[in-house]
Amino acid sequence: MTLETKKSVFVELGKFLSQFSEDASARKSDVLYNDIFFEDFEKLIHLSQSHNGWYTPEQVYFSIQSWAEALTEENISKWLSAYEIDENNDNSKAVALILAGNIPLVGFHDFLSVLITGHSALIKTSSNDQHLLPFLAKYLIAVDENFKDKITFVEGKLENFDAVIATGSNNTARYFEYYFKDKPSIIRKNRNSAAILTGKETHEELENLGEDIFRYFGLGCRNVSKLFVPKDYIFDTFFEAIFKYQDVIHYEKYANNYDYNKAVFLMSNFKLLDNGFLTLKEDASYASPISSVFYEYYENLEDLQKRLQADSDQIQCIVSHNLTQDSIAFGETQKPQLWDYADNVDTITFLLTTK
User: Fold this and answer.
1) What's the CA gap between 315 and 287, in Å, rounded?
2) Which of 172, 196, 191 is nearest to 316 (CA)?
3) Residue 289 carries which DSSP code?
4) 293 with 226: CB under 8 angstroms?
5) What is the pLDDT along the chain (355 residues), one digit of tens a residue?
């Protein structure tokens, strides 16, 4: 398959995904194989919560729409223009993908990267996300059957692969690093995202920050779990702005976490700020539990920037008014572009240079 052919197949997938929306999914006449896939995918979206309680239709639709927006001819061409990809695929390898399942389709970028560079994907899905990606793989194969020999989902032990991309916790990463020590690899560990506030943010910006906090119930590495605020920062405006997300507490799994984590904090005599659906705790850590955000005061931005640079291996992204290199705008953390790589590790370069 030529690179242009592969790109066109993923563009078709983007068109297919663009039909599905929480407000109203609607068939488009120019989308391939809707007669086979449209209704089944709509059913799968609504079944996802039975497979994983965190995968509510709202969250799954958001993920699908995000990928629909990413998989356009313009975006894919812009992304790949930075690389020289061998059309002849002489260096085709079998790449094992060990995927996470914290948010819907979290492993899709690795899947896309392997296939677009001409390699074969041996995929071990997370038990928390076993259905969405296999369905999309079937759609790709329907559009171009040449993908059939390039995509394999593995239930048992991974075997006969040349390289690996594995995502997990810090604990599983140690296992991955030992187990795959003789293979070229990308091993991803726990990371969290932070926001730097100055006290000058508008109501709209703080409202958008709520999106960075609450999207996917805070389960993603790009969710903001830590705030850096200036001395004497008053949180009233922050709490007022995020009030629009109050309905999150009506979701049972989130509410259970809120009640449990709040109780643990209070029994430990920690001082908390609380608005009834989110607790704020002063803490030096980046990884806060579900329904809680940690915060820390800073005295000057220069020292904070040095601290964040030193802690870069713990941080996925930073939301701010361009106060750090590669800052992300408020409300945009869960809308990464194709060229925004997890952990800042260029997956395409890795796949193109793997021997």
Assistant:
1) 10
2) 191
3) P
4) yes
5) 899 999 999 999 999 999 999 999 999 999 999 999 999 999 999 999 999 999 999 999 999 999 999 999 999 999 999 999 877 656 789 999 999 999 999 999 999 999 999 999 999 999 999 999 999 999 999 999 999 999 999 998 999 999 999 999 888 989 999 999 999 999 999 999 999 999 999 999 999 999 999 999 999 999 999 999 999 999 999 999 999 999 999 999 999 999 999 999 999 999 999 999 999 999 999 999 999 999 999 999 999 999 999 999 999 999 999 999 899 999 999 999 999 999 999 999 999 998 7
List CB contacts of 1: < 8 A, sequence separation 6 or more: 89, 118, 144, 146, 147
Q: Please state at what angle helix 3-17 crosses helix 34-51, rounded to 10 degrees.
A: 70
Chain centre distance of CA 159:
27
- Kindly report the number of other CB atoms within 10 A of residue 224's CB atom: 27
Residue 284: exposed, middle, or buried by beta-carbon count in 10 A (0-12, 13-18, 19+)? exposed
Chain-centroid distance, C-alpha 312: 18
- Structure tokens of 2? 């030529």
The two structure tokens encoding residue 137: 């793989």
Please, what is the angle between helix 132-143 and helix 108-116, to 10°?
Answer: 30
Enter the tokens of residue 162. Answer: 């040349």
**φ, ψ for residue 92 (rounded to 5)?**
-65, 130
